[in-house]
């Protein structure tokens, strides 16, 4: 990791742990949720954007015009709050909200950032309960006369959406080092969310790129109570709260495994965001247009939170900027002060949250969810999940076999030390994998089954600890290539390489080698970018080069001497003449080196006849169901590529035939490999 670019060009580094790799402020603007905001609009504190919930809500309102406006929401909520105050019997007792925490990572081991530990996750739930319940003897307690026990508490789910036991922590490998807020909303949330009427969804992620210095954000509640409004109250598949993994949890409970960074290491980012999730505004009112001078002093619709001129950061002495004698409540969870300086929700804030829980879609249903109530557990109970293979083809040579990863979880009360997993590849003969280890309850291990790159692997747990699994409903999983990228193939011999070095171009070098290991092209190092104080003036120049190649397999390798890959808007790609991207990478911390393979496979027009050198022939061409192949041995193999170079089928040639009935109509290339001969023939599927 580089030294902070506040001394070396304003790249953000916090204590010993960098929350946000290569966070960068260019001028005075920041791209958040698809829109550029000024730093003042985002209320940046010490270089951080404490919360992007207001910006998220603006984005949702712009994208979905029938979603409630702020004014409509407040008009709907106000009488419900008054009714709640007047009829305390409607408030009921303590509300327990079942929670699922989605820990998003890219294949890191348990406890390696951003794959935070179960204990760190649990510490976040503990802090939220301290804060929302104002528990005596904790940092969530206060003696302020308007300080409220909100009577809402949180519990990690004990039952998953399939009715199986869980610890409420859903670990998901999405094969990407970091995410922008836009990507979280469009990719992470829809792929991972559990039923938002039964679980409050929380995401621990590595925010990066244009979102690198955002600590968290939430989706506000809405309602369908006004005519003409969206009855869904907004997007159900994005509902929940998000925080950067290094703000998720509290160092007060650190068992030595936590990955947190002060001053945002006490869990108050999520306390703040859950406040938004339950309908609270920032204490300054979020009305940036209230006063062009920078004094906001707008309303948060809570009479017992004094007006605030703007967001307060650090641990500050309260001031009375808006109204003489009314000092700002800098200790309120809905301000931007440091985690250690927050300790209060007020009675009016409680009334808002209670009204939302009693009336708002998805919040109302959470009151009656029973997903936090445990189901019977057994001594021997293992769960099988399919994981993603995040690799790309990194070498040349034959039809690739890849690892299909699976995870095995111990959901039983006894230690899990062995399991027998039976599996099939593409529906073939049953095979056996014997797993051994030592897992305590709710811990997991990852193992892999090797199969050809285009395979589907179906696996099932058949035995645990030498006996039958007491629960069979969580024993099956199916893995396909998923995130794995098969070897891409160029449609031309001339391909174009484009490289945008990151700011430190002097660290970047690269090579292109053929299948024999001969270096054909190489480049770097490059000049560094230009800076002016804390601002980047320009990145290094973009490098473009045409590579004239012959049919073969090639390996591109890029190196970073500092060991942090391509960062901050750096990227590279290789395209063929048709514009197809063969290999590429955006800003990613791949470490010291990264290799990716691609093929060049170009045929002359006479190849459509079905005859090529070495006398290998195919017929008929065009074909409907079967390609007949002559003059090959019984050990010959084949690959069929579609028009964009993707492998759509591969395997051994049996009885001099390859079945193609399942292919869609179009043009294909079949590559036949027999001993030291490799021939490619174009054919048409009718």
UniProtKB/TrEMBL annotation:
Keywords of the record: Disulfide bond, Hydrolase, Metal-binding, Metalloprotease, Protease, Signal, Zinc
GO molecular function: metal ion binding; metallopeptidase activity
Domain Secretion system C-terminal sorting: 618-684
Pfam family for this entry, one: Peptidase_M43
Gene3D superfamilies per record: Collagenase (Catalytic Domain) (3.40.390.10)
Domain Peptidase M43 pregnancy-associated plasma-A: 191-357
Domain of life of the organism encoding this protein: Bacteria
Keyword Disulfide bond: yes
GO biological process: proteolysis
Family statement: Belongs to the peptidase M43B family.
The name this protein goes by in its record: Peptidase M43 pregnancy-associated plasma-A domain-containing protein
Annotated organism of origin: Chryseobacterium aquaticum subsp. greenlandense
